[in-house]
């Protein structure tokens, strides 16, 4: 039997809480260490798993008892920690976006090539089973050439409890970096990767939340495919009203009670930065994962619609709706594997050498970051921005 990949986890916040069930479910992964600045989280994790838990990521990366590092720390720390892990001979699985600047991302791509080690960027919502199922339909050719892709997402992102860094665009904060990266990954994955140019406008509509809370993006692919990505995190209309009240992780999302309308905005109104940080810490508390991590229904990252010459595709609560020339067909999908399971599978395959054509590698992460930065630049200059670092799927 092949030895499992011994993984160390840097950061024990929300992303790790979501990823842990997938790590635990995969026999090829062994949780072997962790690192966090929080003494409370260190103690809880050590008691649960009985593994070394360090105070910082550098100690973790230098620990000989791991083969790989899962980096789920704030975005502004990613570049330094990826380089450190690679310098220590460790494979890397890093949360999106993998860096904040193109220079940082290019350096990661080069370091990964030189080291021969794996760098996978995820979780991103292109791993969602419905998105992968849409890709299978497109690849089959049954609806003809793909012509348009749209992903629109309205929710309360900007008014969920945030750290100062999450509201600082220069540190990778705001919806374009944090949520647009999901949208652009979905669109690039379905469209084949090769985006030619971006034209966009971003919005900063609340001076108390000084970062991008919205964007409207038009993407043109090299082959003429057109796509739009619209995001609004200002907690008024929620796209879940158009997706059967289903949200990002497959659970119930819509605020149907009038008393709950705008609750995220109302909760933060007038509270201090310290009080918001307390809410943030409570929301990201370490929790022991349950054995059953199946979603209730298929996850919806907003509303995704794909158009081909001979039909359209969108999600349904249990799978896909395919609108062909002749009929409307519903395809039912299994709830498992989940998106996080698929992240882990891709990482394991890449590290073990079973898959030499990994999709979400460092070069893919660079290309996705380039779109995020082009959106910000296009909005600033109010003109089209041509891209240089795109890679095909």
Main sheet: strands, sense, barrel: 9 strands, mixed
CATH homology-level superfamily of the largest domain: Dihydrodipicolinate Reductase, domain 2
CATH class of the largest domain: Alpha Beta
What string, H for helix and E for strand, traces the elements in order? EHEHEHEHEHEHEHHEEEHHEEEEHHE
- Class computed from helices, strands and strand pairing: alpha/beta
User: N- to C-terminal separation?
Assistant: 32 Å
The counted number of beta strands is 15
Architecture of the largest domain, CATH level 2? 2-Layer Sandwich
| Rounded mean pLDDT score | 93
List segments where confidence is low: pLDDT < 50 over at least 5 consecutive residues. Answer: none
Organism: Alicyclobacillus fastidiosus
Protein name: Gfo/Idh/MocA family oxidoreductase
Pfam families: GFO_IDH_MocA, GFO_IDH_MocA_C3
InterPro entries: Gfo/Idh/MocA-like_OxRdtase_N (IPR000683), Gfo/Idh/MocA_Oxidoreductases (IPR051450), GFO_IDH_MocA-like_dom (IPR055170), NAD(P)-bd_dom_sf (IPR036291)
Describe the structure.
The protein is α/β, with parallel strands linked by helices and 393 residues long. It folds into two domains: 5-125 and 338-361, Rossmann fold (3-Layer(aba) Sandwich), CATH 3.40.50.720; 126-334 and 372-386, 2-Layer Sandwich (Dihydrodipicolinate Reductase, domain 2). Helices cover 34% and strands 21% of the residues. It is built from twelve helices and 15 strands. The chain has helices spanning 14-25, 39-49, 57-62, 78-87, 102-115, 129-140, 175-178, 180-191, 263-268, 273-283, 339-352, 362-381; strands at residues 5-10, 29-35, 53-54, 68-71, 91-94, 119-121, 146-154, 195-203, 214-221, 226-232, 303-308, 311-316, 319-324, 328-332, 385-386. It has a nine-stranded mixed sheet with strand order 14-13-12-11-7-10-9-8-15. A six-stranded parallel sheet has the order 3-2-1-4-5-6, with helices on both faces. Strand 12 and strand 13 (319-324) form a beta hairpin. It is globular and about 60 Å long. The model has no long low-confidence stretch (mean pLDDT 93).
